[in-house]
Amino acid sequence: MMMKLICRRIAAAMMIVCGCVLLGVCAAAAQQDDLLGPDRWPTTVEDTVRNILARLPAEDKQRLKTIRKEDLIQFHHGWGTGIRNYYGLWRGNTKLLAAACGRPCHPDDASGIIIEAVWQELQK
Fold first, then answer.
1. 52-97 confidence digits (pLDDT tens)
2. What does pTM read for this prediction?
3. For residue range 85-95, what is the model confidence (pLDDT) as tens digits?
4. Virtual CA dihedral for 10, 13, 19, 20, nearest 10 degrees?
């Protein structure tokens, strides 16, 4: 009796995990359609910041404005990943990478600089 209950719970948990994985895969595939193509990539940090601010909801701008600069690292995953993907930092946008870092650099570093530039713009 106890073993059946444990097996049912394990099966239910596995179904939930599989469903979450499937949703994640579908969401990732859907996001691929939302990426900018190379012909639309911004090539300067300023243009990227303008584009981000134009797309960022007011409540997110307000939240970002109140965050301390040293706490921006919390956006490395999530928003930073979105920046790296959307603006082609992993797909060859070498001009934006160089503009962000002053030289070719890692996409993680460039997205951090872009996040900080967005934050800086909101502090004005």
1. 999 999 999 999 999 999 999 999 999 999 999 999 999 999 999 9
2. 0.73
3. 999 999 999 99
4. -130
3-state secondary structure of 26: helix
By three-state DSSP, how is residue 57 classified? coil
Q: Supply the DSSP symbol for 35.
A: S
Type of residue numbered 123:
Q
Domains of the chain, residue spans: 1-34, 38-122
Instruction: Say if residues 60 and 87 touch (Cβ distance below 8 Å).
Output: no
DSSP letter string over 46-77? HHHHHHHHHHS-HHHHHHHHHS-GGGGGGGTT
**CA–CA gap between residue 96 and residue 87 (Å, rounded):** 8
- Placement of tokens 């082609």 in the chain: 88
Distances (CA, A) of 31 to 6, 16, 90, 107: 37, 22, 15, 18
